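Dear colleague,

Thank you for sharing your sequence with our group. We've completed the structure prediction you requested, and as agreed, I am returning the results in plain text so they can be pasted directly into your records. Please verify that the sequence below matches your submission; if there's any discrepancy, let me know and we will rerun it promptly.
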Amino acid sequence: MKPQSTAPDPFDMRFEADDDFAPTPDEGWHEAAFEGVSAAPDTPPDSSLGDFDDLEIMPAMVEAPRPNPVHEIIAGAEAMLGETLVPRITIHAFLATPDVIEAAEAASNDRRMERVVTTIRPGGLPGALQAYQTQTTPSLIIVESLDGPGELLAGLDQLAEVCDPGTKVVVIGAANDIALYRELIRRGVSEYLVPPLNALQIVRSVSTLYSDPSAPFVGRQVAFCGAKGGSGSSTIAHNVAHSITERLQIGAVLVDLDLPFGTAGLDFNQDPLQGVADALSQPDRLDPVLMDRMMARCTERLSLFAAPATLDQDYEISNEAYDEVTNKIRGAAPFVILDLPHAWSAWKRKILLSSDDLVIVATPDLASLRNAKNMIDLVRRARPNDAPPRLVLNQVGLPGRPEIPVKDFGAALGITPAVVLPFDAKLFGQAANNGQMIAEIGPKSKAAEALDNLAQQIGRREPPAVQKASLISSFFKRK
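Please find the predicted structure tokens below.
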């Protein structure tokens, strides 16, 4: 039997606690995991079910399950990072209660599980024991049991006898107890979940089991899309990227994917020799060194993948190239802002549905309302476990134009606008002509305040506190 694993703990989210978990996700769960494991000093003695009964697991814990705080910690930490796809694996789930079955079905349809083949069956742990008497076990087994600790461990003992080496097991049980959790992990179970569960908890648990510590960092991808041409989506994307880096002081990469007509270079007064079109033309050669050469440095924290904005070529680029390049760029910064063109295409649809955040920019007119509703309905169907897109209403209050009231616009879409930007031709026109951001032209304007607010919503954090100058330093400055 292998000694107890010393691999980094995936539950260690850098919080202090008297009890720290020690799962061993790297090892498969099979019969050898039960043989002669020496318990850690603070774990209950191994052995028979009778010894485990002395752990004093109260019956009340089975009757009144509570949410597992581990998942809340993981979800809070992952909120600041990009989410990647679960690798190509096969999952068999043997479940017993309707709520857990519903959550598992929703998880199997999640965008992060698109590579996974999932089979959900009723019957719980007994159903799994019966099934694997005559068939091999898959990459991951999820079993639900309503039994007490003793019966649960007895059933898992039998399951271990028919599990192939390398198979991981996730158990869903009713007892929310640290002693039972430790015993299950010590015996080789990969994860223990306690209802109530939602789809995202299941997805994140599976993702954690198959995460690769040596995999490259993945930034959070935010896609900006206009409901119609001329809605100002690009201008807002550029200003939000600038606010994330300058106001929130987080690194970001802005990618202008409107190859023939992109305006990011103009807005930042940049004219790089290379840009995103060069990366898309040779995606297999794109590495961190080449990527750094192709990006223009706009500020200390903001890099730009500019569009060529010329009509010298037709830009016949495959959908796979867009997918490969955007995935590689996600390793360059904590936030990747994608400025998408208005034209609809297969690669644009894929980016919209796979991004961590989606911002739809619309103007308060009927065409924008129709197009925004079509996009939001599409996203809601394809991403049922994600938050809805953020809606930005732009150019509100344009003189002489009949408008749909903001309240009615949001009610028709079922979304409250994240921000409402007033029409200000002078401010936005001056910023565009000067190659500057709104915060540089009018830092105290309502538009600058709204854009900073949107950046904070996307960045999910408050800006750093500004240190006030002392009276003595102010005196010397006046001198």
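Summary note from our side: The mean pLDDT is 82.

Kind regards,
the structure core
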